[in-house]
Design a protein that fits this description.
Endonuclease, Chain A, 724 residues, single chain, 19 helices, alpha/beta, 11-stranded mixed sheet, 8-stranded mixed sheet, polyphosphate kinase like
Length: 724
């Protein structure tokens, strides 16, 4: 099927994501990034690609096998998407291998050596032999494959060595497998000599000691393999017991079909064919372009032993306003709304809010949504404490949080045993809203204290994800949040909401209404502007409305970290739309949208919102999400004039999306460099400062005009017109 002129208006979702991962990979090639952080970015790019195959490619492959040929709104059928994905993925893996070759040499100059067996001296060989006998050999089970020993099950992301074996008493050759267990490190450390650290890849170790595993055979050939399995979960929404259903699905996912088989490029043809047949993946993605498989494991090399090779440590601030109330969160929130900007401000304030709610004798009820949280979560402990103290505690644990399903099942069990009323999400919808509500008895009345966030209740993520957390005692918001919890516990659809807007019922229409208002301002000759920040822009209806707004003269600036299916800067279609992506030290995760409201941006009269939702069909139509208006003047100023302006002005971490699909990195003179991440690390936020704001305010930011940045293209792996 040929793409029509109409669907050429949109970029393909999957290819756009691959280009985002290319921008992540570019950070591994960025000389301004510390060396070990470059290794970390390389590892992240590989891990991202693993997940992409586990979910997105697996889904497309399922559609193809089912004979589905209907194109997505960009005009590509599942088969065409898989074809284009394969080409782009091959370029990424080739670039990853080239990048690792360079980084490996650079690490050696910093006394961090990743060595092959041939590089080792006698002392290092002896050390390796000792490590092998003590910590590796006991954990690996050599497996022979013949009619009496069928090919074993290899789990998702399983990695190992295949061997061709011969013996004097056998006519036919036999195959052997050495699969690396999860507890065996990918890079075997040989010990430290002063500041020098030396490692040997586990595949080199296995090859060297392979005769010890198969002493009665001659090894004629070896090869490496790594498998990626279909890890998406198709939920049966009619399942009577959702918990048992998910336990079954998690077991089934571990045995999903192989969707990608990675092989080292020098593998012998007979070993290649043996693995393809054994994994039954004749028609799946087979990648054999690299000698280094599973680069996500490179993260093992990133340690704190060399502080000069990682980002300087950063200690998040605690909101001074809460300190002014002697650490009493409720008193501080009652006095004035506070917005906390993670990771620049501590996640501990969220934990402290819930811990105080658990211990405060006047708090009678707590409501909490849990989409993702950390393995040793203080949030869970606080909810358990509250329940044990007799408070009415309700927790919505979303079982459909991808790759966190097993952890959430465990937390749900712990909470229920403590007496928490646990709700397991919806049939048909996924609860993605980040909401916490504490109900406190104050005199003769009950008062609500609410936390609403753009990010998850995950202590570790909050150290690297940029997110917003609003604390408010606003009665209308408390009223609306209460209705959201009634909805998720009893299917009572929230009606007559006073301030919050929710998906899947009202959020889409509200965005349409707000954009229509800007269109009318533009038609009337008034200033009209939309600023928005999100992780992904995929929804066709929203994109079409943005095109309509652009054609009416609305000035639109979008900061979209990852997938963007909108084509900006096209004459007559999107002349007034600019799209950029920020990729740097922190992962941009907050969702913000601002509307000029008839005045030049930024303005005190602009309408400003934070949200849990990206602009994707799944968020707007199939998830419980929130759109939260920002009314407090100081918080409004912080989100619009500080956070959004800094993101629009960033030129150190920014990539501009071009009409042809290319992303071009901003290039500016040294004395003009501005990093939003560095700015927020140095300048305290506005709403959390209290009296300290009078003493010193953040440096004023020059408000953005319609700039024409100087652009330069980077490597071919990041850029190229086939994103369309």
């Amino acid at each position: 099927m040929m793409r029509t002129e109409e669907n050429r208006q949109y970029f393909n979702r999957e290819l756009s994501w691959l280009f985002f991962n290319g921008r992540v990979l570019e950070e591994a090639r960025n000389p301004d990034t510390p060396l070990l952080e470059r290794v970390r970015f390389l590892s992240i790019s590989a891990s991202n690609l693993d997940e992409f195959y586990m979910v997105r490619v697996a889904g497309l492959r399922t559609q193809e096998l089912a004979g589905m040929s209907a194109p997505s709104f960009d005009g590509y059928t599942p088969s065409k998407q898989l074809e284009k994905i394969a080409k782009r993925a091959d370029k990424i893996t080739l670039s990853q291998a080239q990048t690792w070759t360079k980084l490996r040499k650079m690490l050696a100059t910093q006394k961090i050596s990743v060595l092959s067996i041939g590089d080792l001296d006698d002392g290092q060989l002896e050390a390796l032999n000792n490590v092998f006998l003590e910590t590796i050999f006991p954990l690996i089970s050599p497996l022979a494959v013949d009619p009496a020993h069928p090919f074993p099950f290899i789990p998702n992301l399983g990695f190992g060595m295949v061997l061709s074996l011969t013996a004097a008493n056998r006519v036919d050759p036999m195959f052997g497998l050495l699969t690396v267990p999860a507890h065996v490190p990918r890079f075997v450390k040989l010990g430290e000599q002063g500041k020098r650290r030396s490692y040997v890849p586990i595949e080199d170790v296995l090859k060297h000691f392979a005769p010890d595993f198969f002493p009665d055979f001659t090894i004629t050939d070896t090869g490496l393999y790594r498998v990626t399995r279909d890890s998406d979960i198709a939920v049966d929404e009619e399942a009577e017991d959702l918990v048992r259903h998910f336990e079954f699905l998690l077991k089934k996912r571990r045995r999903g079909r192989v969707i990608r088989l990675e092989l080292n490029k020098s593998i012998a043809p007979e070993l290649r064919e043996f693995l393809i047949e054994s994994f039954e993946c004749w028609n799946e993605a087979i990648q054999d372009s690299s000698e280094v498989l599973g680069m996500s494991d490179l993260s093992e090399l990133v340690t704190s032993h060399n502080p000069e090779l990682i980002f300087p440590p950063y200690t998040a601030r605690f909101p001074e306003r809460i300190r002014e109330f002697d650490g009493n969160c409720f008193a501080a929130i009652a006095a004035k709304d506070i917005i906390v900007h993670h990771p620049y401000e501590e996640f501990d304030v969220v934990v402290q809010f819930l811990q105080q709610a658990a211990l405060d004798p006047d708090v009678v009820a707590i409501r909490q949504t849990l989409y993702r949280t950390s393995d040793d979560s203080p949030i869970i402990r606080a909810l358990i404490t509250a329940a044990e103290k007799g408070k009415n505690v309700t927790a919505l644990v979303e079982l459909k949080a991808r790759f966190d399903e097993a952890l959430n099942l465990r937390w749900a069990g712990d909470l229920e045993r403590a007496g928490v009323q646990v709700v397991y999400g919806f049939v048909g919808f996924k609860t993605h809203a980040k909401v916490s509500l504490a109900i406190r008895r104050e005199g003769e009345r009950l008062r609500t204290y609410t936390h609403l966030g753009t990010g998850n209740y995950h202590q570790q993520n909050a150290k690297i994800y940029t997110d917003l957390a609003l604390f408010t005692a606003d009665e209308d918001i408390g009223h609306d949040v209460g209705k959201i919890f009634n909805f998720v516990t009893s299917y009572s659809r929230p009606r007559n909401m006073k301030k919050l807007v929710t998906a899947p019922y009202d959020l889409r229409d509200e965005l349409d209404r707000l954009m229509d208002a800007e269109i009318e301002f533009a038609k009337a000759g008034k200033p009209a502007a939309i600023w928005a920040k999100m992780n992904a822009l995929v929804d066709k209806r929203v994109i079409d409305k943005l095109y309509e707004a652009s054609q009416a003269g609305v000035q639109i600036d979008l900061v979209v970290r990852g997938i963007c299916c909108l084509r900006p800067g096209v004459t007559g279609l999107s002349d007034n739309i600019r799209v950029k992506s920020i990729v740097g030290r922190f992962l941009e995760h907050s969702r913000i949208v601002c509307f000029g409201n008839g005045e030049p941006m930024p303005s005190d009269h602009a309408k400003v919102y934070m949200s849990s939702a990206d602009w994707m069909p799944r968020n707007l139509d199939h998830r419980i999400e929130t759109l939260v208006p920002i009314h407090d003047p100081t918080v409004h100023n912080q989100v619009l004039d500080q956070i959004m302006v800094a993101n629009l002005l960033d030129n150190k971490n920014s990539w501009d999306l071009q009409p042809d699909g290319k992303y071009l990195r901003r290039v500016v003179k040294d004395d003009e460099v501005f990093s939003a991440h560095e700015y927020f690390m140095k300048n305290p936020s506005l709403s959390g400062r209290g009296h300290a704001l009078k003493e010193s305010a953040p440096k004023d930011l020059e408000r953005p005009q319609q700039w024409k940045p100087k652009l330069v293209s980077g490597s071919d792996i990041v850029h190229g017109s086939d994103v369309t």
